[in-house]
């Protein structure tokens, strides 16, 4: 009997961060924050359509030096260790159009631990404070950029391979296909044009169950 081909990404090392590691990362990110001071958070993927926090203000924003890419293996939220999916990260180079949210300073201790649980479950991102351009002027926002040294990082894949991975994967938050399509829809609704993501989402929407031959 012919054996099935290995699933891409399944052999890579995988470890969830401990609560202590997440707390240490959170404290490091907020070391210069003054109690009660409002903060900005930059969203480029699911934070656009599911921020999970209340905010005082929302603006379209451009981040320079990084671009949105499906460059992170997901083994929990949109995949499993045995069949990983792909989620967005901010990879090096180019620019990215997204949104920034202004959170009231008195809400930071409430919302940031949950934000860290969501974004820093494996330590695959690097929390950084980076200037983002908006029509109302620049803001310094918390940005989760891709850590290229993390084993879950993956460089650009051929489109056929990327689509096959997305189509077959699902995790605790649902199918990977839904995640990619919802992100594309949210960007369109916000007036953000991402030609690469639009092309991928259109192919996923056309036939979400199609797999390449032999996949």
Structural overview:
One of its GO terms (molecular function) is glutathione specific gamma-glutamylcyclotransferase activity. Pfam families: ChaC. Its EC number is 4.3.2.7. InterPro entries: ChaC, GGCT-like, GGCT-like_sf. It comes from Alcaligenes xylosoxydans xylosoxydans (Achromobacter xylosoxidans). This protein is of the alpha+beta class and 215 residues long. It has a single domain, classed as Gamma-glutamyl cyclotransferase-like (Hypothetical upf0131 protein ytfp). The protein is 29% helix and 31% strand. It is built from 6 helices and 7 strands. The strands form 2 sheets. It has a 5-stranded mixed sheet, sandwiched between helices. α1 crosses α3 and α5 packs across α6. The longest helix has 14 residues. The radius of gyration is 18 Å and the shape is globular. The two termini are 16 Å apart. The C terminus is likely disordered.
List strands and helices in order, with pairings.
Elements: H1 19-29, E1 36-43, H2 46-49, E2 57-74, E3 85-105, H3 108-119, E4 125-132, E5 139-146, H4 159-168, E6 170-171, E7 174-175, H5 176-189, H6 195-206
Parallel strand pairs: 1-5
Antiparallel strand pairs: 1-3, 2-3, 4-5, 6-7
């Amino acid at each position: 009997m012919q054996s099935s081909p290995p699933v891409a990404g399944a052999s890579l090392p995988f470890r969830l961060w401990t609560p202590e590691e997440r707390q240490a990362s959170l404290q490091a990110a907020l070391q210069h924050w003054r109690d009660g001071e409002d903060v900005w958070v930059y969203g480029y993927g699911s934070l656009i359509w599911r921020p999970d926090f209340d905010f005082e203000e929302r603006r379209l924003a451009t981040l320079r030096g990084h671009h949105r890419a499906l460059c992170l293996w997901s083994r929990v939220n949109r995949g499993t260790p045995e069949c990983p999916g792909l989620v967005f990260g901010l990879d090096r180079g180019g620019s990215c159009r997204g949104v920034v949210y202004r959170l009231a300073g008195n809400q930071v201790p409430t919302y940031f631990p949950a934000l860290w649980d969501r974004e820093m479950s494996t330590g695959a991102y690097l929390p950084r404070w980076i200037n983002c351009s908006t029509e109302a002027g620049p803001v310094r926002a918390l940005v989760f950029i891709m850590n290229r040294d993390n084993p879950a990082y993956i460089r650009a894949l051929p489109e056929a391979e990327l689509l096959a991975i997305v189509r077959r994967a699902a995790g605790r938050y649902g199918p990977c296909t839904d995640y990619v399509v919802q992100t594309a829809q949210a960007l369109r609704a916000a007036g953000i044009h991402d030609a690469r993501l639009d092309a991928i989402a259109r192919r996923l929407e056309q036939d979400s169950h199609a797999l390449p031959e032999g996949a």
